[in-house]
Specification:
heterotrimer, A alpha/beta (435), B mainly alpha (306), C mainly alpha (273), A: D-Maltodextrin-Binding Protein, domain 2, two-stranded antiparallel ribbon, C: 273 residues, mainly alpha
Chain lengths: 435, 306, 273
Amino acid sequence: MRLRHLLSGVAMLAASAGAAPAATITVATVNNSDMIIMQRLSTKWEQATGNKINWVVLEENVLRQRVTTDIATKGGQFDVITIGSYETPIWGKQKWLMPLDDFAASYDYNDIFKNVRDALSTDGKLYAVPFYAESSFTFYRKDLFDAAGLKMPDHPTYDQVAQFADKLTDKSKEQYGICLRGKPGWGENMAFIDPLVNTFGGRWFDMKWNPQLDTPEWHKALTYYVDIMHRDGPPGATGNGHNENRALFATGHCAMWIDATSAAGYIYNKSNSQVYDKTAFTAAPVEVTPHGAGWFWAWALAVPSTSKQAKAAKEFLAWSTSKDYVKLVGETDGWTVAPPGTRASTYDNPAYIKAAPFAETVKNAILAADITQPTKDPVPYKGIQYVAIPEFQAMGTQVGQLVSAALAGQMSVDAALKQAQAAVKSTMEQAGYIQ
Amino acid sequence: MSTAAAATVPAGTRKGRPRAGGQVSTLPLVGPAVVLLLIFSLVPLAATLYFSVIRYNLVNPLIHGFAGLSNYRFLFADPALLYSLFVSVLLVLEVLAITVIFGAILASLFEARFPGRGIARVLMISPFFVMPTVSALIWKNLLMHPVNGFIAWITRGLGLGVIDFFTDLPLTSVVIIVAWQWLPFAFLILLTALQSLDEETREAASIDGAGPVRTFLFIEVPHMGRAISVVVMMETIFLLGIFAEIYVTTSGGPGIATTNLTFLIYQRALLAFNVGGASAAGVIAIILANILAAFLVRAIGKRLEI
Amino acid sequence: MSARTRVQPVAGTLAWLASLLMFFPIFWMFLTSFKTEVEAIATPPELVFWPTFENYRDIFQRADYVAFAINSVIVSFGSTVIAILLAVPAAFAMAFYPTERTRGTLLWMLSTKMLPPVGVLVPIYLFARDVDLLDTRTALVIMYTLMNLPIVVWMLFTFFKETPKAIIEASRIDGANVGQTIFLVLLPLVMPGIASTALLNIILSWNEAFWSLNLTAHNAAPLTAFIASFSAPEGLFWAKLSAASTLAIAPILVFGWISQRQLVRGLTFGAVK
C-alpha cells in the first residue's frame, strides 16, 4: 500500500517535471506526398522543442469528413488540422478556428502570396497558414507535339486544345489526345468543369443566389467537354479522378492533361514518371474570359478553437509553413518537391528555379487565380472551382454525377443541366438562400 | 407465423415440467441483450426522428429551427430517391443470385474428394477476409481498369478489345466486386449444410443412375434449402448497407447508375452535414428496412422455424 | 466405394479452377506489393520482376503498423467476447423457453441491423464526446458489440435450438440451476457453433470501416484507418497500397485459414436437419 503511494508520488513528480515545457499535439493531415515529407521531417521539430506529435494521416475525403465532424461538434480531438481554402473562410466565420495573426516577425507574413493569404482569411483575419497552394494548368507532351509539327502557345484557347487533341489521338497505340477528370465529385470532375464553365462565361449563381446552370454558357462548356472526351479521351473516363489521370499521363498515355500544378513535381520526377523528360507546361486554356480559367486551391494548417495545446500547435505551424521549412525540404528531399505556391522567397531561390523548370509557369498560374473575381459576370460567392458555402460539397457532387452521366452518354447535356438546375435550386431553397 | 410457436410450446409441456412449476424466468437472461439493443436502437431512432423535423446543419449553425415535414418534402421531391431504392434492391438481388447459385455449385464440387481440397477451400474463402475498401481498390485499379488493368490486358490479348467496366457496366461491375466478397460466405454455409447429407441418400441416388447434375438438382439443392434461406437473410442485411465499394469505384455514377439508398444518404446529407435531411432519409431507410425485414421473415423465418 | 470417398477428378479440377480464380485478386495484390510503383501500373503487366521490399520499408517507416494491428485485435476480439457473453443467456432463454414474444424479439433484433449508420453518426459522436470516449478502444468495443449482437443472438439461438431439449430438462431435474445448465451442459454441446459465431463476428468487426474511422484519431485507430492513410488521392500508390493491404488483411487471413475447419463445421445456423 505504502509502496504504491510512494511510486505514484514519484510518477507524478516525474510527470510534472517533464510536462512543463513539453506538450503532445495531435495533427490530422492528408496523405499527399508533401505532407508525408512533413511527417518525416517533423521529428527534427520534436527534437528541437521536446514536444511530441501524434499523427492522424488519412485519405483526403475520409480526413475531411472526420475533421468536419469533430470541429462542428467541438469534439476537440485535434490540435492541428489540415484543411483547404474551401473550408477555411467558412469555419473561420463560425469561430471554430483560432486566428493565426500573431506569429513572430521572422515568419514574414508578407512573403506569402497575397491571394493565398486572402483565400485563407475572413473578416480580415488569417485562420489558416498555407502549406502548399496550386492552380491548374496544361501538361503536354513536347515530343508528340514536335513529331506532329504542332506548337503549344503560351496561352492556348480551348479551340486550339481541341484541334491538338484530335491530331494527337491514336487509339491503336493507346495514345489519347487529352485526359480530363470524369469521376463524379465536387473535388474531382467538378474541379475541372467549374473553371471550364467560368472561362466559357458561365457562373453558378447570380447576385441573388439564383442558380444559373441551365444557361447557354454551361451548355456550351459541357458540350465541349463531352465531345472532346468522346473523340480524344481515354476509355473509363467516368472513373478517372486526378489520380487515375496522373497515372495515365505518367505512363505516357495522354498527349495533354489539364490538372493541378502541384502534380508537376511528380511528373518531372524520374522515379515515378516515364515522361519526365518529355513533358512541358503551359497556362490553363481560355475561352471567352480569362477569369477563373485556372482553379485555386491551398492546403493549409489550422488550429481548432477547442485545442488545449494551442501554444505548441501554433509553434508547429510557424515551423512547418516557414521559409526555413521550404529550404529544409529542398535540401533533404530535393528542390523539385519543395512545397510550392505559397511564398515569394521560394520562387526567388535560384536552387528551386534551377531544379523546377515549371516554377515560373506555376507561380503565374497561382497569381492569376483570383477567387474574389472568378467569373465574367459578378457573383455573390468566393471560389473558382468551388462556391465557398457549406452546401456546396453536396451540390457539387450531385451536379458532378449528372455531368458524368452526360459523359457516359446516359443522358443528353441538355437533360443533365436541366436536372442539375432543379437539384441546385432545391438545395438552395432548403438552405434558405432563396425563397 | 403462429404454427412454429405453437409447435414448440406444447413440446415443452409434454415431456413433463421440471420442478418448481418449470417457471424459469427468462427475463434476466434475455434482459441484458434486449435492453442494450433497445437503447442502441431506440435512442438513435428517437434522435433521428427528432432531427428529421428540425432544420439542423452541422456546418451552418445559422440554419436552425423547426422544419416540420420540409426535410421529407425535399427528399421525396428528389428524383434520385426512387431510383436509388431500385438500385439498392437490384444490387441485393443480383448479388444474392450470383452467390447462391455459384455457392451451391461450388459447395457441391467441394463435397467431392480431390487432392488439396483443404488448400483449395482456404483459397476459396479468402476474399471474405478482405476489407471492402481494399477489395474495391484492387478490382478497380489493378483488375478492371480499361488501360492499366489485368482484365483489359487479357481481353486485348484475345483480340476482344477492352471492356470499359465502370462506364458501360457500372452496376454490374459493383455487383461483381460485392459478389466476389460474399460468395465465400454463401459457399461456407452451403458447404456446411451439404456435409450433413447422409451417405445413403447419395448412394441410393447413384444406384438409381442419377448423374452428378441430377444428384445436385434433386438431392443436394433441396437439402440446402434451409441453408439458402439463411444465406439470403444474412446477406440481405449486409448488402443493403453496401457503401465502400460504390464510393471507391464509381462514386455513385455515372449519373446515378450506382447510387443506392446508403450512398444517396451519404451524398445528400452527410457530405453537406445536413443532419436534418440525413435524419429524414434515415427514417425512410428504417421504414424500408422494417418492411423488408417483415417480408424476409414471412418468406424465410417460417422455413427456419423461428 | 461411396461417392464421398472416391476421388473425383472432374469435380476436383473445377473446384481448383474456381478457387484459383477467386484467390487471384488477392494473389495479384500480393505480387504487386513487391513491385515498384511504375512496374505496378505497367501495361502489359510485368510478370517477371525483381521483388522490392521498398514498399514495406516505406510503410513501416511511416506508420506504426503494430499499434494499428493491436487495436484491431483488441477491438474485434473484445467486442466478440462481450457480445457472446451477452447473447448466450438470451439465446438460451429464447431457444428453450420460448414465449409468444420470442419470435418478435428476434426479428426486431435483426431489423436493428438495417439502421443506416450515417444517420446516427452525429448523435453518437456527441454522446461519445460527452462521456469522454472519443478515440478510445472502449467506444469501438461498445459499438461493435451492439452492432453485432443481433447476429450473434440469432446464430446462437439457431444452434441452441438444435440441441435436444431432453438433455437440458434432465439436467434441470437433476437439480442444476440455470447457470450450471448453460455452462456445464449446453455450452460443451454447442461449442462448434459458438466458435464459428465468434469467428464470423471477429471478421465482421475487423473489416468494419465506418465507426472505426469516425470515432478514432490516434490512440484507438485500427487497421481500417491504417488503410485509409495509404489510399492516396495523389500520385501512384497501387504498389504501396497493395503492401499496406497485404499487411492489413494478413492477420485476419492467417487467422481465418487456421480456423476455417471450425468455420466449416459450425456455420450450420440450425439449417441442418
